[in-house]
Please model this.
Amino acid sequence: MFADVFLESDLGPGLVVPASAVINAGDRQIVFVDRERGRLEPREVQLGAKVGDRFQVLAGLAEGDRVVTSANFLLDSESSLKAALASMTPGSSR
Model:
């Protein structure tokens, strides 16, 4: 016998991002933040609970950060991800 169980919880105030904004890179989760005039910055985030189609953000973003949510398909994901990960590696030059 099986059952589907749904629990509701009040996570309190905090930041959330759409699941579509999150790029899973192995053991890291990355979002792209708009730094003005179309310049995008990869940002590693620590995620909490997933509620519906959104993730709670525990670290890595601040209130007011503009996160790319849709149109991720416009990014060349493989090259963007490689560049993002390379820039986040200790000892890499910018």
The first helix runs from residue 77 to 88. Strands lie at 15-18, 23-25, 28-34, 40-51, 54-59.
